[in-house]
Specification:
The protein is mainly beta. It is built from 1 helix and 12 strands; from the N terminus they run H-E-E-E-E-E-E-E-E-E-E-E-E. The strands form 3 sheets. Strands 5, 7, 8, 10, 11 and 12 form a 6-stranded mixed sheet that branches. A 3-stranded antiparallel sheet has the order 2-1-3. A hairpin with a 2-residue loop joins strand 7 (117-122) and strand 8.
């Protein structure tokens, strides 16, 4: 067992000090000892022997390829989320609601973490409207064409991922009290 221990110690010394000189000695009990300290000659023991250690194999990895981003752009950090998209209303869908109520549903992958929030981006402007189970409910939206998107943000408000906007059309019936002129027939 002592010989095995000595060999393990010797190998660890060899590994840690590959460039230093290594010496091999045999103690009074016949145990082989490797050391990087020149041993003292003792009477009755063979003189220390210098051990030539082969260089340790090493590997130099190739340089990492340079990013194609310009140096002026902000560094990008990998996001936790792989995908965020508006799934309802579909692109260019027409919604008919006289109160202007619209539900916007989004899908996110992987699922939203408990310390993150989904916020609505309506007509290109971020809002404080928060999704509940991936659905934004907004009311009194003006009739016309709108865009809706979503952002996943952390608790500090940093945007983690943003969806592409989806365009939808809202139709609201308008009752105008102004009479529409009717053309008169020619006599």
């Amino acid at each position: 067992m002592n010989t095995r221990f000595a060999v393990v110690v010797a190998l660890s010394i060899v590994a840690s000090s590959a460039s230093a000189q290594i010496y091999k000695t045999v103690d009074a009990n016949g145990n082989v000892v490797y050391t990087d300290i020149a041993p003292i000659e003792r009477s009755g023991q063979p003189p220390p022997q210098e051990v030539n250690v082969q260089p340790i194999n090493s590997y130099e990895p190739p340089a990492a390829p340079q990013s194609s981003n310009s140096s002026n752009s902000a560094p990008t950090t990998p996001s936790y989320y792989a995908q965020l998209e508006v799934i309802s209303p579909t692109e260019d869908e027409t919604i008919r609601d006289n109160a202007g109520n619209v539900q916007i549903e989004v899908a996110i992958s992987p699922p939203l973490r408990s310390d993150h929030r989904l916020l609505l981006v309506l007509d290109g402007s971020p809002t404080d409207v928060e999704a509940v189970n991936g659905v934004f409910e907004i009311s009194n939206v003006d009739r016309g064409t709108h865009t809706a998107g979503a952002r996943a943000v952390d608790r500090l408000g940093n945007v983690l991922i943003e969806s592409a906007p989806a365009t939808f059309n809202l139709m609201r019936v308008s009752i105008d009290s102004t009479p529409i002129p009717t053309p008169h027939a020619a006599p």
